[in-house]
Amino acid sequence: MALRTIGWLTVLPLLKRLVPLPQLARFMWSSGSPEGRRPDRERSATEIVRGFSRSSGGNCLERSLILYRFLSRENADPALVTGVGRSERFIGHAWVEVEGRPLLETPQTLAPYVEIMRFGQEGSLARPPAS
User: Fold this and answer.
1) CB contact set of 64 (below 8 Å; sequence gap of 6+)
2) Which residues contact 105 (CB under 8 A, 6 or more apart)?
3) Alpha-carbon span 77 to 37, nearest angstrom
4) Cβ partners under 8 Å of residue 128, min gap 6
5) pTM of the predicted model over 0.85
6) Are the beta carbons of 33 and 73 closer than 8 angstroms?
7) How many CA atoms lie within 13 A of 56 on its CB side?
8) Pairing mode, strands 92-98 and 113-119
9) Residue from 74, 73, 85, 110 nearest 95 by CA
10) What 8-state DSSP symbol labels residue 125?
C-alpha cells in the first residue's frame, strides 16, 4: 500500500489539473475486495496516507483522493467531500468521511468550511448526510 501511495502522490498533481473532479472521483473509486470490510486494513490505509501526505506537502485533495480509493477497496463506503471557506477569501478543502465521521480531520479544522460536493459509491454525486 505504501508503494501505491507514492505512485498516486506522483500522478495526482497532474491528474487533478487535467481531469474534472467528478470524473476523477469516479476514476479513484476502487471496487471492494471480496474479503469484505476489514477495519484493520482501513486503519492501516489511513495511517499510511496520513504519513505520506505530511512528507509530501499535505495537499488535501490528493490525500483525500488516495484515501477514498483505498477505503473503497476495503468496502468502507467512504465519501469524498469538498468544501469552501466561509470567509470572504476563497479557499477550498477536501476530506474523506466514513459512516459520517471525517478522517484525518477534527471538528475545528472543518468548522471554516461549507460542503459543496460529496461523492459516494463509484464516484457518484451523493447527498450530504442529514444534520
Assistant:
1) 80, 81, 94, 95, 96
2) 95
3) 9
4) 81, 115, 118
5) yes
6) yes
7) 20
8) unpaired
9) 110
10) B
8 A C-beta contact, residue 37 and residue 76: yes
User: What is the chain's percent helix, strand, coil content, to nearest 5?
Assistant: 50, 20, 35
Strands annotated E in 51-91: 79-85
Q: Per the structure block, which three cell numbers stand in for 64?
A: 483525500
How many Å apart are CA 28 and CA 74, to the nearest integer? 13
Each residue's pLDDT, cut to its tens digit, for the chain (131 residues) gives: 788 888 888 899 899 999 999 999 999 999 887 888 988 999 999 999 888 877 666 789 999 999 999 999 999 999 999 999 987 778 899 999 999 999 999 999 999 999 999 999 999 998 776 65
